Inverse folding.
């Protein structure tokens, strides 16, 4: 596989991120090649090329997508930033641009998982990756390095691509771990961690942390790359709390499983129980038993179960967990076999240990069992048999490493906390920062970030190819182990931006769509995290049913009357096809109502019924000076004056689609795009039935006029409108799949959070013979727009008009017209 996949060296050794204080091209190039090589090297763990086309997770894509995806992101971002002028392969840069973000565990499979969909060959994708690699090396060599490199620098796009690739090293590692073990092989030099660090973990005490004030977030001028959600700095107070010294281990979680925790509804939230029932989960997903448990694979392997006797008894543990020397398995000596003393080895007598001769055991020393103390064997403790479970590492099924942290989703973590007692929960993001102890101030530069430390004692950066014992690395000054590294750690906060957070135009939707109250945060990084993911500033999230190399620890408040330093989202978010989901607070607290905040994604504010009422009235209710009627008349003039073809048109900011329905009179294909799910939902209903009743709410009804009468009005689309010509799409950015338009109408810049992000690709999606029309009533005139798009689009003219707003006042607007240079 190495010869087929690698475009450079085989490499599993990560390097530090780029220090932007005074970077050189040599350092930037080395950091790029390092990420490119590690990502490709990881895929050599697949047994053959057919595995690239299997679906490890029914809600994710086959691995061929992830192998190609990171290369296409470089091209897409560098093109927007102006570092390159032409694409490499538009077909690839469209097909492999966008993955899937499932809304829930029971979503339907993506069409690209089906057996009829044909992906490009692995040989074609490797050629593409090699071409992109060489292109980027040329960009680095030929582009002047103008300092400083900050968020306004075109070099930021290259760093974005590198850090994105490093994120997907982790993504792909989880998917590989979800594959049938028969489909994978151990790559060269891959090394699992020891089962035990010597001193057996028998207790996990709660450690007290005194109240404090701390600073989270990253200064805007900090000299390293950061994702948008990391900025800006944010001060908060943390009352006294307690948290467990270690992450919860497989041994601790086993007691929850043994006690029937997966079958006791009282421990689970409503959402969590529904997930548990749907997945028919009986234990963590990376535990292996013999009972044929339902797997999560998709496509052609959707019926596969990891929990089969042939997998369980076909363990390759002793072939792969050998990290010691002198014939000693996994760093263990003293003639002790796999955690059992008295010469009895893992259920085998005659002094031979689990496939290892000469009385040397698999991962234990001094007669102490692998995760079980007092001379008790690896699978027996307190009289309870542990023979029932093994553990799926990324490339192997191995004996259960009881002292490693358990990998669970948030539902399972929350259920465990409830089982321990009503006072227990996972820590909050702010508490996680407090557990780190004193950190250098950000003002000292990169030395203030753990990721740049030469003496970084944590299980990160592929030091090991697995989790490790929870007591293997030293604690923070507060006494907590694995605050960074080993596995990611669930924290209780909803993912949200800090006050003052802004998106970046190169990747406007990297974080903000996840500020929806349905994504729970995680902190600290894992054994496979590299680059910025191991930074003190890193902030990531997943949906609560999601699996990652991800665990948790316990926390509890010292004084239940203290305000919990927890940030939950109270903004209702409408999900297309589902509506507004009912949310369960991530933790139990008597002060939970004080923990709610609005989302920092202002675009979600339009997802309420008042905004829907306003836009329905603006488009369909107002008769005199109707906004869309006048805009349609301007479009007719544009088509005639500039002799535009009538094949295709796109309307960004379509709302429920009044203009889209009108444009079917002129165009064969009409695409209606909006970020607002309620608007697209209304448009789809109108398209399907031809009529719709909507509520007319008084202006300000959600505040001052709640008691006023609500009117119902009916819309009917004329029978001569060919509704089937329209396609409605909810989108949070302009992807490559949108292209080839004769007329592009950008009518959304007055409503979006990042105007530049919605302007920079208009030139590419519009045909050379076509026209771009940009509409604004908030001052986005020729000069302001030209400063963003003038290098790609030439100005034609401006058309002014006025319309009647929903409050009855007249407003002025302008349409600026542009054509590709």
């Amino acid at each position: 596989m190495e010869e087929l996949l690698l475009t450079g060296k085989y490499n599993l050794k990560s390097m530090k991120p780029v220090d932007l204080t005074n970077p050189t091209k040599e350092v930037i190039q080395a950091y790029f090649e390092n990420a490119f090589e590690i990502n490709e090297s990881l895929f050599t763990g697949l047994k053959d090329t057919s595995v690239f086309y299997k679906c490890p997770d029914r809600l994710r894509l086959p691995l061929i997508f992830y192998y190609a995806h990171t290369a296409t992101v470089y091209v897409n971002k560098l093109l927007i930033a102006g570092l390159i002028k032409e694409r490499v392969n538009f077909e690839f840069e469209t097909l492999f641009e966008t993955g899937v973000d499932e809304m829930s565990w029971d979503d339907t499979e993506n069409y690209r998982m089906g057996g009829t969909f044909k992906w490009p060959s692995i040989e074609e994708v490797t050629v593409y990756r090699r071409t992109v690699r060489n292109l980027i090396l040329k960009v680095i060599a030929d582009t002047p390095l103008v300092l400083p490199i900050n968020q306004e620098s075109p070099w930021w796009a290259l760093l974005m691509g590198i850090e994105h690739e490093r994120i997907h090293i982790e993504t792909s590692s989880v998917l590989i771990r979800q594959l049938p073990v028969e489909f994978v092989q151990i790559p060269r030099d891959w090394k699992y961690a020891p089962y035990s660090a010597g001193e057996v973990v028998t207790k996990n005490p709660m450690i007290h942390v005194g109240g404090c004030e701390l600073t989270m977030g990253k200064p805007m001028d900090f000299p390293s790359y950061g994702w948008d959600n990391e900025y800006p700095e944010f001060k908060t107070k943390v009352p006294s709390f307690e948290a467990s010294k270690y992450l919860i281990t497989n041994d601790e979680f086993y007691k929850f499983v043994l006690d029937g925790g997966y079958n006791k509804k009282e421990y689970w939230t409503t959402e969590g129980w529904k997930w548990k029932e749907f997945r028919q989960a009986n234990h963590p997903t990376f535990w292996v038993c013999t009972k044929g448990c339902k797997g999560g694979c998709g496509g052609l392997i959707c019926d596969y179960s990891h929990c089969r006797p042939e997998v369980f008894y076909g363990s390759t543990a002793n072939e792969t967990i050998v990290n010691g020397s002198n014939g000693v398995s996994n760093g263990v000596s003293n003639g002790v076999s796999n955690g059992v003393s008295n010469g009895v080895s893992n259920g085998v007598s005659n002094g031979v240990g689990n496939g290892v001769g000469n009385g040397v055991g698999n991962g234990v020393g001094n007669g102490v069992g692998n995760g079980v103390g007092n001379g008790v064997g690896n699978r027996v403790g307190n009289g309870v048999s542990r023979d029932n479970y093994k553990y799926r590492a990324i490339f192997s099924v191995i004996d259960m490493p009881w002292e490693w942290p358990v990998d669970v989703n948030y539902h399972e973590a929350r259920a465990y906390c409830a089982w321990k007692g009503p006072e227990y929960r996972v820590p909050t993001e702010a508490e996680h920062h407090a557990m780190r102890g004193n950190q250098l101030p950000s003002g000292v530069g990169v030395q203030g970030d753990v990721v740049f430390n030469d003496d970084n004692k944590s299980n990160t950066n592929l030091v090991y190819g697995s989790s490790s014992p929870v007591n293997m690395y030293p604690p923070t000054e507060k006494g907590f182990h694995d605050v960074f590294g080993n596995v990611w750690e669930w924290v209780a906060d909803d993912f949200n931006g800090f006050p003052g957070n802004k998106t970046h135009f190169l990747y406007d939707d990297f974080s903000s769509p996840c500020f929806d109250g349905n994504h729970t945060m995680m902190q600290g990084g894992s054994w496979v995290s590299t680059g910025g993911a191991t930074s003190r500033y890193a902030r990531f999230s997943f949906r609560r049913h999601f699996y990652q190399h991800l665990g948790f620890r316990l926390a509890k408040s010292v004084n239940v009357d203290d305000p919990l330093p927890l940030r939950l989202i109270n903004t209702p978010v409408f999900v297309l096809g589902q509506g507004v989901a009912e949310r369960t607070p991530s933790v139990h607290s008597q002060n939970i109502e004080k923990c709610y905040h609005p989302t920092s994604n202002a675009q979600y504010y339009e997802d309420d019924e008042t905004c829907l009422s306003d836009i329905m009235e603006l488009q369909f209710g107002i008769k005199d000076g109707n906004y869309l009627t006048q805009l349609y008349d301007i479009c007719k003039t544009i088509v005639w004056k500039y002799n535009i073809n009538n094949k295709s048109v796109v309307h960004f900011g379509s709302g429920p689609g009044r203009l889209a329905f009108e444009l079917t009179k002129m165009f064969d294909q009409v695409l209606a795009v909006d970020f607002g799910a309620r608007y697209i939902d209304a448009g789809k209903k109108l398209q399907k039935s031809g009529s719709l009743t909507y509520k007319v709410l008084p202006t300000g009804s959600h505040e001052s006029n709640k008691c006023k009468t609500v009117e119902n009005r009916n819309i009917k689309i004329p029978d001569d409108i060919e509704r089937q010509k329209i396609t409605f799409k909810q989108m949070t950015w302009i992807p490559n799949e949108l292209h080839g338009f004769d007329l592009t109408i950008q009518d959304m810049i007055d409503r979006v959070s990042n105007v530049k992000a919605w302007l920079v690709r208009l030139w590419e999606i519009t045909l050379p013979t076509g026209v771009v029309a940009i509409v604004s009533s908030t001052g986005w005139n020729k000069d302001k727009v030209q400063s963003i798009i003038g290098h790609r689009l030439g100005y034609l003219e401006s058309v002014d008009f006025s319309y009647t707003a929903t409050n009855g006042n007249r407003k002025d607007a302008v349409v600026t017209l542009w054509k590709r240079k």
User: Anything to note?
Assistant: The chain has four domains: 2-183, 250-402, 409-600, 608-820. The two ends are 45 Å apart (CA to CA).
